[in-house]
Specification:
The protein is an alpha+beta fold. The protein is built from 6 helices and 21 strands. It comes from Hyaloscypha variabilis (strain UAMH 11265 / GT02V1 / F) (Meliniomyces variabilis).
Amino acid sequence: MFEKLNPFAGPSVQSEITDLRIYPIKSCRGISIKKSFVTKRGLDLDRRWMFVDAETLKFITIRDISKLTLIDTAFASNSDTAASGPSPNSPRGTDAEFLVISIRNTDKTVLVPARPTPSWLKQNTELIHVNIWDYDTDAYAYSPSINSVFTDFFKREVKLVYKGPTPRILRGNGAPDVLGREESTDFPDVMPLLIANEASLVELNSRLRGKGHEDITIERFRPNIIVRGYDSSSPEDKAPTAWSEDIWKTVRIINGVEKAGIMGFGGEKGLVIDVQARCARCQVPNVNPDTAEKDKNEPWDTLVSYRRVDKGIKWKPCFGMLSCPRNEGPIGIGMKFEVTQMITGEHLYIKGF
C-alpha cells in the first residue's frame, strides 16, 4: 500500500543529480553527459541501438559477450567530422548528428546518423523483427558493410539494429494495469530509466574493501540518473542514505519548466518520475568496463550476501531503481532531485521482459 501524500506540498527528501549517463548501444560503453532531455521512452538517444545474433535475431548483451564493453560510443556533429574527425570525448547530447562507434585498441570506427530520417533508413537498412527478452519488436538492421566490422571483432556474425517505429510496450512493473497508463521504451531491459543512489555505491564499496577488493564505479550498474547520497552519519536529516531508494515511489526533478495537469498534479515545475521497482541484478557488474574482464566473484558475491531484498525475485540482489517518467523535459547535472512520495510497504518485482 502506498502512503497517501501530496507530493508537491510540505517537506520532501531532497538531493541533487551528480551524473547523467546514456548507453546509445545496449551493453556497449556509455557516455557521461552534463545535460539531456527526458522523453517518455527514457533519456534522449539512450539504448536506441542494439546488437543481435545474425541468425536468431536475439539480442546480445555483456552477459553473452563481455567484449561489448570495448566498443566506445560518442556523438559528433558535422563540424566535428569536417574539422578533425569525430570527437568521442565530446558528446553533444541532443545536438548530435552522428553516432560514432569505435572499437577500442583498433582503428575501426563507424559513423551512422544519430537521428536517421525515414528516407535514410529506407535506403540503408532493412526493417526486421528482433527478440529482446522474449519480446518481438521491429528494428532497422544496418547493411553488411557496417555489420562486417563488428562480426570480425566478435568472431561471430551479428547485426547492429536501430529501434523501429512500433512501440515496445512496458510489461511487468510497467504494464498498463500496474503503472496506470501505457508507456513504451526502446532497448533497455525493463524500464525507460534507471536511477542510482551514490550512497548505496559508497556502502557497497566499503564492504568490497573490507574483503580486499578494489572499489568499483557506478558505471558497472549502467544507471541513467545518479543522485548524490549521504552515509548514515549525514547531519542532513532529510538527505538520502544508502539504500533509502528501496522505498521511493515518486520523485521529481526541478528543471524550471512548469507543467500543468500531469496525472492530477497541476502547476508543478519539473519532471515527475514513477519509481516502479528495484533493479534485480545479474553478473554484468562483475565485468570491468575498461578491460572486459569478468571477476569470478565480485561484486556479485557481496551483493547476494545482503541485497536479496525483493520477494518478487528472491534469488537476485538489487541495486538501483527502475523508473518511468510521467512527462518530458530537460534534465541536467546539479538539478534538484526530490523524493516526493514513499511506499509504506515494499516494492515487489514483477517479471516482465
